[in-house]
Amino acid sequence: MRSSSTDLAIIELLTAQEKHLTSLEIYEAVRRRLPAVNQSTIYRSLDRLAQLGKVSVSDMGTGAAVYEIVGDHMHHHLVCTRCEKVITLEHKDAANFFSQILDKQDFEVHTNHLILFGLCGECRKALEMEDE
Ligand SMILES: [Zn+2]
Ligand SMILES: [Zn+2]
Fold this sequence. Notes:
By secondary structure, the protein is α+β, with helices and mostly antiparallel strands. It has helices spanning about 5-15, 25-35, 40-50, 90-105, 120-130, and strands at about 20, 55-60, 65-70, 75-80, 85-90, 115-120. The chain is globular and about 60 Å long.
């Protein structure tokens, strides 16, 4: 199995799905198209695509890393640790933060899928009510 066909199958899958998938989900979906593919080929492909910046790999607090295509519209996420709600943040909302880091720390951020953990408004409200 040539690695390039695996790379292509993964990119096409992630582009079509536009959501976060675990390596196992990617393996199972790609195997439907390329029945001879094995899991370690998929893992190597995902590593390579992540290093090239074509695919993001993130810990979203679910226990397994998730992969997503890095398209023309880069995005980030806010993850509520209480209700597990995932909010999508457009890149322009993080761009200021990244450019401040460049200015102040002389450090260029290459993170293409930033995950910030916290509490959403509803959960903060619910926690306040519990306290009363
Ligand atoms: Zn995402
Ligand atoms: Zn919440």
